[in-house]
Amino acid sequence: MVLLTGMSCGTLPFSVNQATLSAEVTPPTSATPEPTATPTIVWFPPTATFTPFPTSTLIPPTPEMRPGVSKILLQDNFTESTPWTLHSGGNGRISLGKEELTIAIQEDKAYLMSFRNGPTLSDFYAEITVNPNLCQDKDEYGLLVRVTSAENYYRYALSCDGQVRVDRILSGSASSPQPWMDSGMIPIGSPSISRLAVWAVGAEMRFFANDTYLFTVRDPAIPAGTLGVFARSSGGHALTVNFSNLIINELSH
Question: Residue 48's pLDDT band (boundaries 50, 70, 90)?
């Protein structure tokens, strides 16, 4: 039997005729054949640039919800009565105190509003501090936006049981682009203090409470107007709310 060298591991065995092999085999020479290099398989070739695997910690940043807020257009400390509509009657009163405007309601389910006579605003950012002193259950208070008359405006309302909503009053008829919703940013009962804010550009209005974004309302019905404040009693008890430190900023585009 003759043992063959150079057989690769993957070659199948086969038979060889002894006589034929003897005739064909020649004596070896002194020259040593050069070995043939076997290519190496690279199962995980390196890439030119390392690409990290995505991880759950890569969270996109929160977009700025109040872009373009620039210089102060107006700051009202409620020391002048001229810009505001005041009231005194059987259902309650609207009056100025020490750097604040107060709405006090005695009558069951009364609704009182005070409008500022200017400026007329379309794109703006406004903040105001609200302080209900006597407030409970479904009593409401808040900011009026884009007021053109007593029958046309948006009403940003907080309730004394911790809810918030936005109504649109158009030709005296009310609807709710944002119905009542619970919010941890709205204090329950009284006394309490909150800072309300509205960012408005075109048909889009974004609403904030205590420096926290709440929701967006898109409604083109009333494109511009002045500001105001309001309070409404749900009935059977007195309601008193103070408003102070109104700041209106321009928006840069």
Answer: very low
